[in-house]
Amino acid sequence: MVLPDEETLAALDTRWRAANYLSVGQIYLLDNPLLREPLRPEHIKPRLLGHWGTTPGLNLVHAHLDRAIVERDLDALAVWGPGHGGPAPLANSWLDGSYTETYPDVTRDAAGMGRLFKQFSFPGGVPSHVAPETPGSIHEGGELGYSLAHAYGAACDNPNLLVACVIGDGEAETGPLAASWHANKFLDPVHDGAVLPILHLNGYKIANPTVLARVPEPELDQYLRGVGHDPLYVTGDEPAAVHRELAAALDTALDRIADVWWAARRQGVRARPRWPMIVLRTPKGFTGPAEVDGLPVEGTWRAHQIPLSDPRGNPAHLAELEKWLRSYRPEELFDEEGGPTAAVLSGLPTGERRLGANPHANGGLLLRALPLPALEECAVEVASPGTGSHEPTKVLGGLLARVMASTAERRDFRLVGPDETASNRLQDVYRATDKTWQTAILPVDEHLSHEGRVMEVLSEHLCQGWLEGYLLTGRHGMFSSYEAFAHIVGSMANQHIKWLRTSRRLPWRRPVASLNYLLTSHVWRQDHNGFSHQDPGFVDQVLNKAPEVVRVYLPPDTNTLLAVADHVLRSRDYVNVVVAGKQPCFDWLDLEAARAHCAAGAGIWEWAGTEGSGGGGAGGAGPGGREPDVVLGCAGDVPTQEVLAAADLLRRHLPELAVRVVNVVDIARLMAPEDHPHGMSDRDYHALFTRDRPVIFAYHGYPWLIHRLTFHRDNHPQLHVRGYLEEGSTTTPFDMVVRNDLDRYRLVMDVIDRVPGLSVRAARLRQRMAEARFRHGRWVTEHGTDLPEVANWHWGAV
């Protein structure tokens, strides 16, 4: 390693000063961007929003990464973890020209600098944090904790990519980041790139000191080495010395990464490497005001946001701001037209090597269509509805195994989950790939290897972060989880949905593969694990989000799950939530019918109803030319089974009743088209559910969601929804539905109660249904199993 000479270090300081000047300007200035005249109050923004404290550290790292990229011809991506450090990558991408290429109106001259300044945290402008609008970004800086997981996801299957990840010491206090230190145990030095964590210890959060900045350095060193890193330390508050130390540390780290790659790829070394990292300790608000109003600022929590709070109304603050800006010597940094001088531009990367222009940060540029198998290769035979059964997710595992096999060479598909791939019946994927694992492998272990593409770790946050980073850099994947614990990553899902919503509105952002959740081991079949594992509410949360991005599917059987999986794996720029069971489930539809049903999203199952032969009244005609007396709606595999069992009971005991069965796969179909792109018009909705007939709807989750989605429909007063009521336990499968009033007997009772005239003439049947529920209660507590008539039921049974 040859240390940079003084000329190189001086060039680094020049670029750092330029980026710092542009960062302060973004926070404060509305006009007079180059200080060509004395600063006046009207040059200051009326509302000051932004965060200075972390920004000079990000600018420092950016300048040094630029130098290394040029000298080593690195393919590099940067993840900027610390909070609202948005001014830094905006400033640096403006300096290297990638910002102007992305936004041509923000030119590299005085006028463009003025636009860059004004738009920051300004109505109609850009956020104060790193966001989709920021060139070169894959990480939203608005919520802390996910940067390192995103970085590792980006590095997976990108063997020549360096991902530098700056981690704020406040961010390092979060649970997701703490788990992410262990991601190095899953990074394969042969097939994956490298992540260089840069822990920036500037000492403070918004109002408090940070933990890792205050522990003794030997303790910090033990911690970082304990999680498998080989740390390099840079400490200082004098710019020239910091530049010298950081340049040396970065070169050392990159040399070590190159050595790891060489040993693994050329010499066959498979021992887990100790990857380097950098600990950068510089003052918060480095190069900003040392004190304001007699109070210390630089190096304290007061530098976190706006060090000078009122330069527009306080002359002393205005004078201090001008002094601060001029301390960077802008006359040396920008020419007469306001563009960067040759000294600033010297040594900057060009083309796609610029951090603001690397195509990995706009993953749609690199995305290839996923080679999916023909569904005929995976579908199950269905001679007639309800006579056979399969484990839906096990069959899906066969499809995913084919995807893994077909992407074995290109390596652009991964399956992630928290230690549940086999539990969720997806174990057939191990025919094509193993689980990635870089630590010790014992003879008793199964399906572990260095190069596997299934990623399991008991941190849902880490799984989610990996997959987000993987998708945003142009690859495909799926996240499988127990339904109840998807809530753990609810906040991350929110952030990703917001990212996609914003990206869709940026013409330069290319569509990426959708984030696909498979939620299984669901509420109705967690009877063995009990109440803690029973929660279907993730769907409610997702459907509150941007309708152009979110999709929720509840396939009722195996072939519909395959059709839905095929669709979501082909889709772009969505968050798809698929809820499907892993336990044996009746097969209702053959592949052709399943495809048609999923394409429609909701439909009448004519074979299940009796409206073609039963009675009925005036109104819209059903398949038999009559309006049904009652509609039985369902969404979800267990609710579908209970509705069909109820329909079977009605067919046998009330054959004159015209019953319509409607199954919903795409839950957003219940919404209005103005509320969701998949929403049905009133005409289409009422063609399924009628305008005025009773609708008994059995839903997989919380019943009020269905009411919320349909409240505006004409027949909403006739809608009665059954679903999960927070009644759970360790019990039998059928007892779960009985406890929540979703069982077939209760549904028949609902029909009798709500169809005019039935409450009298079907009173005896209603009593029999109530007695069946009572018999169930006694049977299940005595025998520990479901009633034989329930356990042995199938469609059409006599």
UniProtKB/TrEMBL annotation:
GO terms for molecular function: aldehyde-lyase activity; magnesium ion binding. Residues 5-365 form the Xylulose 5-phosphate/Fructose 6-phosphate phosphoketolase N-terminal domain. Keywords: Lyase, Thiamine pyrophosphate. GO terms for biological process: carbohydrate metabolic process. InterPro entries: Phosphoketolase, THDP-binding, Transketo_C/PFOR_II, Xul5P/Fru6P_PKetolase, Xul5P/Fru6P_PKetolase_C, Xul5P/Fru6P_PKetolase_CS, Xul5P/Fru6P_PKetolase_N, Xul5P/Fru6P_PKetolase_ThDP_BS. Its cofactor is thiamine diphosphate. CDD domains: TPP_PK. Residues 582-795 form the Xylulose 5-phosphate/Fructose 6-phosphate phosphoketolase C-terminal domain. Its EC number is 4.1.2.-. Belongs to the XFP family. NCBIfam families: PRK05261.1-2, PRK05261.1-4. PANTHER family: PHOSPHOKETOLASE-RELATED. This is Probable phosphoketolase.
